[in-house]
Amino acid sequence: MGTYRPEFVEALRLLAEAFADVVKAGYGRPVIVGGAAVEFYTGGAVVSGDFDVVTAAQVELENALIARGFQRPSGPGMLLRGVLHPRLGIGVEVVSGYLFDGATDKARIRVVSVSPGEVNLPPVEDMIADRLGQFAGSNKRDREMLDQAAVLYQIARYDLDHPLDEAYLDTRIKHESSGVCDLRFLIEKANETDDA
C-alpha cells in the first residue's frame, strides 16, 4: 500500500479493526463504497475526505470506531452524521443498508488484507457504474463523476490480478444510469481522456 497517502492507509487499518469487531458481533463485514473506494482503486490518484460504508450494523461500527479515536462531530457548521478522526481528518458515514440497492454480485466483492485485518470493497465494475449513474442522474451532468468513471475504467482494464468483466460492467452501467449510459459510452469517454 505504498502509493496511498498515510492518512488513507491508517484509516483503512482502523476500519479493518472495526470491521472485525462488527463481524464478531454477528454481522457481515461492512463494505467501503464512494470516494474512498475510488481512491483505493485509483491508487490514490483520486482523493476522498471520507469513507462511506454499507452495513446493517451502524451503531456497532460507530462504537468500534469511537473506541479507536474517532469522535462524533459537534459544533457550528458540522454535519452531525457519522464519526470523524480528528488527527487524520477523515470521516466515516454509514450510507445505506444494501450494497447498490442489492444489485451488486456479492460473489465479486473484493476482500483486501489490511494489517491486522481485512476490508471489503465492491467490485470495480460497480464503482464505475455508480459513478456513471451519478453522472447520468445529475441535472448538470456532473463531470467529476464521469471523469472518475473514466479513470477507474482506464486503470481496471489493465489489472491482470482482477480482470475487468465488461459484460457485467455494461449491465451494471445500464442499470445504474437507467439506460442513459452503456459500456460504449464509457469507452468513448475514456479514449477522450487518453487523447487529452
CATH architecture of the largest domain: 2-Layer Sandwich
Beta-strand segment tally: 6
The coarse overall form would be globular
What is the CATH first-level class name of the largest domain?
Alpha Beta
Average pLDDT metric? 91
Kindly report the spatial arrangement of strands forming the biggest sheet.
1-2-4-3
Number of domains: 2
* Helix/strand class: alpha+beta
Spans of 5+ residues with little confidence (pLDDT < 50)? none
- Rg, rounded, reads 17 Å
Task: Report the portion of residues in β strands.
Answer: 5-15%
What is the first-to-last residue Cα distance?
29 Å
Structure commentary:
The protein folds into 2 domains: 6-121, Beta Polymerase, domain 2; 124-195, no CATH class. Helices cover 45% and strands 14% of the residues. The chain has 7 helices and 6 strands, in the order αβαβαββββαααα. It has helices at residues 6-24, 34-41, 58-66, 124-137, 143-156, 166-176, 183-195; strands at 31-33, 50-54, 83-85, 90-96, 110-114, 117-121. The chain has a 4-stranded mixed β-sheet with strand order 1-2-4-3. A two-stranded antiparallel ribbon has the order 5-6. A hairpin with a 4-residue loop joins strand 3 (83-85) and strand 4 (90-96). Helix 1 crosses helix 3 and helix 4 runs parallel beside helix 6 (166-176).
